[in-house]
Amino acid sequence: MSAEFDKLAKEEEPQDPLEGFIYKLAPKGSLTLFRLLRDEGRELTEDEIAEKLGASKNIVRKILYKLHDLNILVYRRMKEESTNWNTYYWKINWEGLSVSLIERKKEVLKKLKQRLAYESSNRVVYVCHKCGREYKFEEALANDFFCPICHIPLDYIDRTQQVILLEKYVRKLEEELADELRRIQSS
Ligand SMILES: [Zn+2]
């Protein structure tokens, strides 16, 4: 069974942020299945998906339900009159996906801003390479530039370049988010 998962996942290399999001969260083989539904541009049944992917229904069903849990896919259930069986028609939950993507970006942005706040207020620090503790100039000076715990000399760190990079990245992400929110609200 896992060999079959591996086969499905062979070509999986995320090509854009949306694919990266699916690749990170969903099990192996998900991206292949997602691309099939995206490229077909219509609803597909489990049988059709299994056939097109050359995978067993069992595997396909597992991935489908996982993607459904993650809000990436939705299905429509239809009772076949002749057999009285239910057929499931699957498609991509585009609306839900953009919302999840935005939520995730917001999380990333929040963490980046926290990091930025920390690094800008600790732009220049002294660090002990043994225990990793950081000291501000006054603390380092008071300890003659030695780590008071490990008794070894402290290293000097200047994060100015890092802070500039982080600021740039935060701004870029904020712009992306604003664009996406506008797009969702206008659609
Ligand atoms: Zn130390």
TrEMBL record:
Any Gene Ontology biological process: regulation of DNA-templated transcription
- Signal peptide range equals none
Cite a single Pfam family from the UniProt record: TFIIE_alpha
Q: Which UniProt keywords apply?
A: DNA-binding, Transcription, Transcription regulation
Assembly description: Monomer. Interaction with RNA polymerase subunits RpoF and RpoE is necessary for Tfe stimulatory transcription activity. Able to interact with Tbp and RNA polymerase in the absence of DNA promoter. Interacts both with the preinitiation and elongation complexes.
The name this protein goes by in its record: Transcription factor E
- GO molecular function, one example? DNA binding
The family line of this record is: Belongs to the TFE family.
- Matching PROSITE patterns, A to Z? HTH_TFE_IIE
Q: Which organism is it from?
A: Fervidicoccus fontis
Q: Which SMART domains match?
A: TFIIE (SM00531)
Lineage, top-rank taxon, reads Archaea
Q: What does this protein do?
A: Transcription factor that plays a role in the activation of archaeal genes transcribed by RNA polymerase. Facilitates transcription initiation by enhancing TATA-box recognition by TATA-box-binding protein (Tbp), and transcription factor B (Tfb) and RNA polymerase recruitment. Not absolutely required for transcription in vitro, but particularly important in cases where Tbp or Tfb function is not optimal. It dynamically alters the nucleic acid-binding properties of RNA polymerases by stabilizing the initiation complex and destabilizing elongation complexes.
Q: Which residues form the HTH TFE/IIEalpha-type domain?
A: 10-98
Swiss-Prot/TrEMBL domain comment: The winged helix domain is involved in binding to DNA in the preinitiation complex.
